[in-house]
Specification:
The protein is α/β, with parallel strands linked by helices. The chain is built from 17 helices and 8 strands.
Length: 384
């Protein structure tokens, strides 16, 4: 990789230009709808802004290019599609795609999602641009499902109640220091003795339970209890993940009685810091039984850790490791792009490292004069 990066730096003098980072690519700040770079991104089904899916209808050529990326991925796609029609006893319910940046993980997820739509699945996808918390992820998934005509009514109602209380308390000048950081973390215990001493609050230990957590001798719990009269809402504000996740699972399972569901978690190398423990607990049924009609697909640079290999998860888990194209696959791909000049082929293979997305980007905007490959107006560079 060091050798490849040095080759990039030689061919693309970055100090001459202003660049910004897209999840796997670098491109100039100024990108308009007519620029060659925008054409490259659209041909990959991506937007130059934050890697979002482009709504523009693709041309036949662009569709062909997208499909050609998967010339060496046909087996993974066939395996996934075959899995969708298996019975509960044999179907894998968790798919984990891993591989280095630029290898095509997000594109693979989009293809998986298309396959699920073909089998009448209801789908939703979250990634690093979703609000970076468990609550934000649940809210985003519920919002997408609702937009598709399948609301999680019970969850959404309680989640909105939580948001209303949170805004009111955050705006209160009397709130305890560190309120915003403490709420929703689920990281301390309010002991029965503390609850009993809360002045002027009619809360009994049974309300919160022995496992309920808050730091600083119940200061936060006391404040919330003074501001909110409904005891169920007190619990909701103080432990939202614990209160909302079972409702989320219950609503998902109810929806799955009528429609199979697929939930996608992209760029997991970035979101795992706050999602990993929660998602594993969900899949281990610690918040309620998640029915087999809910498929979970995860994509990230890193393979899932050993903590995922539990008795309830491991038998249902399928791991997919995406690798760069082999040299033969890369050459076949370029041939399909009508690039047969040996000098051009060798240069593209060397510059791209045979990474599918970068190879596509370079091949799509290949200049007649190969020395112009250093022109940043039509070239994307991989970030290592």
């Amino acid at each position: 990789m060091t050798q490849l990066k040095q080759e990039f730096e030689r061919k693309f003098p970055l100090q001459k230009y202003h660049f910004t980072i897209w999840p796997a690519l670098i491109y100039p700040f100024r990108v308009d709808s007519e620029s060659p770079f925008t054409s490259i991104m659209v041909s990959l089904g991506l937007s130059p802004m934050r890697g979002a899916v482009v709504s523009k209808k693709l041309t036949r050529r662009e569709l062909a290019q997208q499909r050609q990326i998967f010339a060496g991925r046909r087996q993974q796609l066939e395996d996934f599609q075959r899995n969708l029609i298996l019975d509960d006893q044999n179907r894998k319910l968790i798919w984990a795609v891993s591989g280095q940046g630029g290898v095509g993980k997000s594109t693979m997820l989009r293809r998986y999602r298309e396959l699920c739509h073909g089998h009448h699945y209801v789908t939703a996808l979250v990634d690093e641009y979703t609000p970076n918390s468990v609550l934000g992820v649940m809210g985003a998934l519920a919002e997408q499902l609702e937009a598709a005509g399948h609301p999680l009514e019970g969850f959404t109602r309680r989640y909105r109640t939580y948001q209303q209380h949170q805004k009111q308390i955050e705006a209160d000048p009397e709130r305890p220091t560190g309120f915003a950081q403490a709420i929703g973390k689920g990281s301390g215990r309010v002991l029965n003795e503390v609850v009993k001493t809360l002045p002027g609050v009619a809360i009994v230990p049974a309300l919160l339970g022995e496992d309920f957590i808050v730091d600083k001798s119940g200061e936060l719990a006391a404040f919330v209890a003074r501001k909110i009269s409904n005891k169920d809402d007190v619990r909701l504000v103080l432990e939202p993940i614990k209160e909302l996740t079972p409702l989320f699972i219950e609503n998902l399972s109810a929806l799955a009685e009528h429609h199979a569901i697929a939930l996608y978690f992209d760029t997991y190398e970035r979101t795992a810091t706050y999602l990993d423990d929660w998602l594993r607990e969900v899949l281990e049924n610690k918040y309620g039984d998640l029915v087999p009609e809910v498929l979970v697909v995860i994509a990230g640079r890193d393979e899932l850790g050993s903590a995922w290999l539990t008795e309830l998860i491991a038998p249902l888990l399928e791991r997919i490791s995406l690798e760069p194209f082999t040299e033969d696959e890369a050459r076949d791909f370029l041939t399909q792009q009508d690039i047969v000049d040996q000098k051009a082929v060798d240069l593209l293979l060397r510059l791209s490292g045979r990474l599918p997305l970068l190879l596509t980007a370079l091949a799509t905007n290949l200049p007649q004069n190969l020395d112009q490959l250093g022109d940043p107006t039509g070239t994307a560079l991989i970030v290592f």
